[in-house]
Design a protein that fits this description.
- The chain contains five helices and twelve strands.
- By secondary structure, it is of the alpha/beta class.
- The strands form three sheets. Strands 1-6-7-8-12-2-3 form a seven-stranded mixed β-sheet. A three-stranded antiparallel β-sheet has the order 9-11-10, with no helix packed on it. It has a two-stranded antiparallel ribbon with strand order 4-5.
- β10 and β11 form a beta hairpin.
- The longest helix is centred in the middle third of the chain and has 13 residues.
- The protein starts with a strand and ends in an 8-residue tail after the last strand.
C-alpha cells in the first residue's frame, strides 16, 4: 500500500497521549473507509493481526501534572500550549494504517503522520520506540508530529488486548455489542461504560485489566513515545 497523502489537516479527534485534553481540528473527516479520492491518494486498509508486546510499567505523575515520555520530565501548562500550537501548525499529513515502511514514511514531507502502532507495521509487528523517534524527524531536519490510530468505538478481534473469543458468546461484557457489518471482526462498543474505558486506559497503574502486567492499549502508545492519538469511531454513540 502506498503511503497515503492528505493535503489538509482533517481528523476525527486528536488526543495528546501525555495530556488529558482532547483536540479536534476544523473540518472533521469521515471514517478512514469514507475518505474520498479527493482527500487521499491511497485507500486505507484495516491492519493485519499482530502480537502484543511486553513493556515496562509506565511512570506515575502527580494529579496536576502530566508526564513527558520523551524527556522523562513533567509537562507544564506552557508545554501543553506548545503542543497545541504544533498541532494547529500542521498543514499536511500522511495517514497509513497497514503495511507502513518506516524508511519510506520518514522520507515524506508531511508535518504530521498517523500510523497504527500495534497492527500497522510492514513487518507485521508492533512499532518500536526507535522507529517512532525516526518518524518524528523530517528530511529537512525539522520535527513532525507522529500519532497513532486508536479506535474507541469498536473492539477489533485482531487486537487481543480487547477481548477473548469467549466474549463472542455468553460471556460477552455488556459494553460489547454486535459486529459492524462493514468490517468483519469489529464489534461495536458502548464507550461510555467503565468496563470498556478500563480496557483502553488500564488500571490505576496503566496496566492491562486482563493481566496487570502488559500496558493498556493507551499506555502502549505512551511508552512508544507517540505524541498523540487519532481517535476513530467517536460517532458510534449514534448507533447504540
Amino acid at each position: 500500500m502506498r503511503f497515503g497523502i492528505v493535503t489538509r489537516l482533517r481528523t476525527h479527534c486528536l488526543l495528546a497521549a501525555c495530556l488529558t485534553s482532547m483536540f479536534a481540528a476544523p473540518g472533521f473527516a469521515a471514517r478512514p473507509d469514507e475518505v474520498t479520492p479527493a482527500a487521499a491518494e491511497a485507500v486505507v486498509q484495516r491492519p493485519a493481526r499482530a502480537p502484543s508486546p511486553a513493556s515496562a510499567k509506565p511512570p506515575a505523575a502527580g494529579a496536576n501534572a502530566t508526564r513527558d515520555t520523551a524527556s522523562g520530565g513533567i509537562n507544564t501548562q506552557a508545554a501543553q500550549t506548545q503542543r497545541l500550537k504544533r498541532i494547529n501548525a500542521a498543514r499536511s499529513w500522511g495517514y497509513q494504517l497497514n503495511g507502513m515502511r518506516v524508511e519510506d514514511a520518514a522520507k515524506s514531507p508531511f508535518d504530521l503522520i498517523v500510523a497504527d502502532a500495534t497492527a500497522g507495521h510492514a513487518a507485521g509487528r508492533h512499532f518500536q520506540r526507535g522507529e517512532v523517534e525516526k518518524l518524528k524527524k523530517k528530511p529537512d531536519g525539522s520535527r513532525r508530529l507522529v500519532l497513532s490510530y486508536l479506535s474507541i468505538g469498536e473492539a477489533e478481534d485482531y487486537r487481543p488486548d480487547y477481548f477473548t473469543p469467549e466474549y463472542l458468546s455468553e460471556d460477552a461484557p455488556d459494553w460489547l455489542l454486535h459486529e459492524n457489518p462493514q468490517w468483519k471482526g469489529n464489534r461495536i462498543v458502548r464507550f461510555c461504560q467503565e468496563g470498556w474505558q478500563r480496557t483502553i486506559l488500564g488500571d490505576d497503574d496503566g496496566r492491562s485489566v486482563y493481566n496487570s502486567i502488559d500496558p493498556s492499549p493507551l499506555y502502549q502508545l505512551i511508552e512508544l513515545v507517540f505524541e498523540g492519538i487519532y481517535l476513530d469511531r467517536v460517532d458510534v454513540f449514534a448507533e447504540v
